[in-house]
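Comment thread on ticket #2218

A.B. wrote:
> Attaching the input chain for the structure job we discussed in standup.
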Amino acid sequence: MQPLADRLRPQSLDEVCGQRHLLGENCVFRRAIEAGTVPNMIFYGPPGVGKTTVARLIAKTSGMSLHMLNGTSAGTSDIKQVLSSVGTFGAHNGVLLYLDEIQYLNKKQQQSLLECLEDGTVTLIASTTENPSFYIYSALVSRCSVFEFKPLSPQDVAEGIRRAVRRIDETEKTGLEMTPEAVECLAVQCAGDMRRALIALEFAAAGAPTESGKRRITAEVIAQTAFGARYDKSDDMHYDCISALQKSIRGSDPDAAVYYLARILSGGDLLSACRRLLVIAAEDIGLAYPQAIVVTKACVDSALQLGLPEARLPLAQAAVLLATAPKSNSAYSAINAAMEDIAKGKAGAIPRCLQNQHFDGEDAKVKGQNYLYPHDYPHHWVKQQYLPDDIKDCVYYHYGDNKTEQAAKAYWQAVKKDN
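C.D. wrote:
> Ran it. Output below, let me know if you need it in another format.
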């Protein structure tokens, strides 16, 4: 039986839920499509947000012969077969090739499309859930306009669900009704993916109890078809969640921190969560609270020994600790500045007093290492050059404005004031 998502696919741009930044009445994208202008395009966005639907509608509006391939199964021979239809009677209005999941085609397969795109014999609409800049051959991207399809809002999904319920109620012998609470619950649960919402709706409709001759979907029925938010360790959502976790902690928001941590752990990605929390402790908290990395390491070790689901407990402790801790990126900035100088070639000779060398050649102007041992001096410090001559006055580390680093700054200012 044809899936509900395919049976209820929108038949016009007005029926497409969401993507108002592309399909709104005064948007350039929509006006160009309705005018019959179809350039080579790449649709980029998460699953279930209308990429395939919009491509079908564009083909229908343009009158071109539509060929659909999927990058997960298509080979070079499939692409050549599409290209062979160019100029035939069935393709007198042109050929539109829709390539779903194009990121799965290898470089050679993607290159095979370049010539026909260059001469305009084939119009390409490709879709991908991954960032085109990273996963699609650059020469192909340069020949296409890239449009981002965004996750649907709960309001967009709710509109699609209500439309689907009306269609089912009108066309099937056993009608269907759905409570407003159930619509809202499903719209939130599907995390912006209309396809997932319709799959869940179809399942819920099949198992819903019949009341007064109609199947009735309630919030309790939807709760039994629950599923988590989309998360894949290998796609952009993974990197978005990791980025959101770090930025939430850097912004001192513990609520957002534990939310994104939960998203990552719900996807079973324990290792990424552990690694990122350790990075955050060093990069964003740093010397403002030096013990943060020690505590985080202990939490990470505990999490790795416990495994999921218990691992969530020490990692949540670490996330909240880091989010509420004072922040400093002074060490992070210092090492970056030093590495930038090294990359520029600022790597002069190490001062003689620091070298691990105890013999001077006959031509040496200064004999002996002349290293001053700081522990032999008051406060365990003595003035001495440590950086190479070319950069001896460079300053990479700047004390942060937190209590811990300011205390260290005051201490060393007092020690060095007489030198």
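A.B. wrote:
> Thanks. Noting for the ticket: The first helix runs from residue 4 to 7.
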